[in-house]
Amino acid sequence: MPLVNMRDMLQHAHRERYAVAAFDLVSLDFLHAILNAAEACEAPVILSLAESHFDYFDFPTLMPAVVSAARRANVPVAIHLDHGATYESAVQGINLGCTGVMVDASTRPFEGNVDYTRKIVGMAHACGVPVEGELGYVAGVEGEDAERHPGEVRYTEVAEAKEYVERTGVDFLAVSIGTVHGRMKGEPNLDIERLGAINDALGIPLVIHGGTGLSDQQFQDLIANGVTKINYYTALADAAGKQIRANAQADSGCGYTGLVKGVIGAIQQECEKRIRQWGSDGKAAAVLAEAEPWQEVEHVIVYNTEGTTAEQVDELMQIGRDTLSNIPGVRRVFTGNALQEDATYQHCWVIRFAHREVADSYRNHPDHVAYADTHFRPVAGDRISIDYEDAD
């Protein structure tokens, strides 16, 4: 089970002075290419899904494939929600299988950023999920997705960064020191001195958004000054687009499969280049040895009801599914009736938690307490409840 805790993954990178690639994906071609590259390089990797890309895919539809592929991988993998827009986005991301979240409040004033991020951290940490915050602002210049980040670059201030981390409790901090979303115009000018001061003040994994267009030396300078996660997308999209244009030029009459032929390999080649450049190649075994496996929990309840009709039990279950499935950390809600008429218990709940810590936060969540006290416990006195952790 190579899906691991992203906090452990990035702490290892921070200590050993390398950076883990967080490749944004927008399709199954990107998913396969990223994992192929990570396995070829024996490297840990982060599968990143940006809310700014949701126009290109349906998040709830794609996520089961991402989770399945991550669990089948031979290298340590984390799944990250990138640039989430709202608190509800973070809850949805965790409930769909993200093991790390970032809700971008960087456009808010400092106090607003702190307050909103702290709310996200409280919810996510109760689910065992680490949180990336952002302070400063990384604007877009040109290229795919750049228009979604309008405005001017605002650099991260050292004193504010220290206060922000202390007050929010974020696990990682995305900083603005001169990179941009999309493609660079001209020669990149990074404030490495500022980055070094931030790293000295915080001592936590730092994140760079907008990695496309930097030189080999600039990447090395970033990593030497605490950057342990580099978000990377535009160059992958450009590699895919270049391959598609070449296919169209070679055969103007080809259909869809002809147009996308070789796209996975083109994306993989760019991913491998960056993985090796950032020093995460060959680190998979060390991360697997240290990182907590990401294990989901099945919350199982078997029960009988008293004084209820079959229709009332169905309604009880429906209200529960609608209510409980929206609680942070609840991945799936299954309700069932026994096939055997003489079964000791006639009904069941199987509720999948994203992480073992959800067992406590779920138990005390006001929506669960209200449902249990109002609907369930009054009629289901005869019940057994047990939490099971994945034994794989």
From TrEMBL:
The lineage of its organism: Bacteria, Pseudomonadati, Pseudomonadota, Gammaproteobacteria, Thiohalomonadales. Residues 297-388 form the Stress-response A/B barrel domain. This is Fructose-bisphosphate aldolase. GO terms for molecular function: tagatose-bisphosphate aldolase activity; zinc ion binding. One of its GO terms (biological process) is carbohydrate metabolic process. GO terms for cellular component: cytosol. It comes from the Bacteria. It comes from Thiohalophilus thiocyanatoxydans.
